[in-house]
Hints:
This protein is of the alpha/beta class. It folds into two domains: 27-70 and 545-597 and 640-742, no CATH class; 90-327 and 362-488, no CATH class.
Amino acid sequence: MANQSSLPLYEKIWAKHTFSRIMDSLTLLLLFLLLGYRISSHNNHTFPYFVAFLCESWFTITWITTMSTKWTPSHTKTFLDRLLLRVSESKLPPLDIFVTTADPALEPPIITVNTVLSLLALDYPANKLACYVSDDGCSPLTFYALVEATKFAKLWVPFCKKYNVQCRAPFRYFCDEEMANHDLPEFKQEWFKIKEEYEQLSGKIENAAQNSIPCELVGEFDIFSQTKPRNHSTIIKVIRENKGGLSNVVPHIIYISREKRPKHPHHHKAGAMNVLTRISGLMTNAPFILNVDCDMYVNNSKIALHALCILLDSKGEKEVAFAQCPQRFYDAVKDDAYGNQLVALPMYIGSGFAGLQGIIYAGTNCFHRRKVIYGVSPHHDIQNANKDHHGLANDKETMQKFGTSKGFVESVTHVLEGMTLDFYKSLDVKAARKVASCDYEYNTAWGKQVGWLYGSTSEDVLTGLKFHTKGWRSELCSTDPIAFMGCSPQDNLGQMAQHKRWSTGLLDIFLSKHCPIFGTLFGKLQLRECLAYIWITNWALRSVPEICYALLPAYCIITNSNFLPNQQESSMWIPTTLFVIYNISNLFEHIKSGLSIRTWWNNQRMGRITTMNSCFLGFLTILLKHLRISDTPFEITKKEQPSSNENVGRFIFNESLIFLPGTTILMVQFIALFMSLLEWQPLVSNGYGVGEVFCSGYVVLCYLPFLKGLFGKGKYGIPLSTICKSTVLAFLFVHFCSKTIAN
Length: 743
Ligand SMILES: O=c1ccn([C@@H]2O[C@H](COP(=O)(O)OP(=O)(O)O[C@H]3O[C@H](CO)[C@@H](O)[C@H](O)[C@H]3O)[C@@H](O)[C@H]2O)c(=O)[nH]1
Ligand SMILES: [Mn+2]
């Protein structure tokens, strides 16, 4: 038998997606044929052909990056038994957990509380865990909810461990009434007792949200009386300290609301993460960090151990910066009506990334190595670090980089030297306050070389990209059952706003000095990883060719011209087959991911709608930002419990500009189809044919929710102002069309 300690703790499994590969290659071939046709066609000097050629070239480039990303998918298999043979439970490394919340209205405290409870109950020695909750909303309600939840945790944590509960978020766990029919009478009794306690807890939080916080607690809440969410000093409260360092109790839990002042940029989530990094550095300084958004509860209680298989593996130890767990969502809207469940896409693109230099950092559900966050490169020489960090001069250097807190700099030195001893003595709030102040980062490397990087609302992808550029790899930690579950937007407004933020933030990265292309030229970003990053960061740019392409059939019908080969030409088979092959392969991928045909269509349709609306707005936002006209905000996604959702898959609309491109495109198709019905076009040769009419009809089909919106009432209707603006734009477009004929 092989020596136990030399066996790897995890293994990469390479998936074979042969059918997908064939279909993808066919698609590429057809795209090339189409481009070839454009170049060689006798029509190639017409305006529509030229525009089509440009758009299709862009699609081809995008397709090459897509294909390269998908080509070698992989995931990981972890060996818990080997881990536990190698590291005894008492030798497991400490783990700091970061939870971020920012707005008690959009992120109801009961959701945050459930996430925190599930984390406190992780299958991991409690004396190795510390849970830090960052509240950018500076909300006494959130604090109150956490205080109450900690009391409940004293029942919940032992209960979960005793009965080996899988889902450790009570609101999900108690949904399942089946549990009560357990054979063990003792279990049954406890189950009911704890369920009742949980109901009391959520009742209290509900009550506090509606009325006010109970007065017996007022003393503790005084500190919130003078605060405004965007203007207050630091609040740090140790809600629970595991003073005895016991392994079977409730871990440390610390509430943090960092200082905020109107004049100081706070860098949204990235800023919050950096404060958490520093405070935890001072307090517990664990070598590993797990970060989750407030809505992502633990669904696999052993997940920390799985992730450590990757991070402690002898190869992983040297190469892997972080272990990212997939993002999954609970209580999806039926058939994914808003296309935000992201199931098929991660299965192909996500594991594709994982087969290259590594999966992107998704901002949540991720286990980090603390020293990587401090800017260390792989194969960083510990001997050297030792030498480096003892001289006084180097302490000075470290201070310039990490800021002037002596305690924190000392903790950094520990991490860089790879010291494994537990740093925790007591949770010192005074030192922690200093590193949470808004001027702490002045003239330091925070947000630039150290910590979460600033400058993009997709701080996650940016930060991960930086690690990859340094030469680190990352792994997808795919477990069964899935590690974490969270909320996804429950309506199209949330979904579209989210995509706008992502596409804006991602384009910001592409246009910054962190651009993946530079990463490959000057750093250690591997070529195909670079292509994959180009694929993802170019999301917003994709909107422009897609909008042009959607307008093209209408343009052709209005001007009686064509952009597709006409019926007499035999080359019509190229675009037709392309359309068919692309859709079949996409449909196949959805079915293989266990999704319905309806879901496929919804995703397909939402793909078009978000690209042409959300991403286009994202594109404009970046344009304005670069012209220094406006800055990009971080709009927080609303988290709600699905029971409150009455839209059941219907689209809702508001005055937002986000609906303008779509409404206009739809109007233009109407005008075109109407004209074709009445045969109003000028008589010129090369008139449009079935192809153009089909395409125009297809666009209308994709925009069916908008079509319904034109006739809908209240929030289900597109506001009159948007309709008016769109009508004006549509007629401008028609006017432009007629101008081009006149020429
Ligand atoms: O100023 C802020 C803004 C946001 N957040 C937190 O950031 C997290 C993510 O925000 P959310 O509105 O849920 O965004 P999503 O669109 O769901 O987030 C995805 O995309 C983000 C980047 O755009 C990543 O940061 C997230 O981890 C990733 O889940 C939440 O916990 C927020 O509380 C803060 O702490 N401070
Ligand atoms: Mn979220």
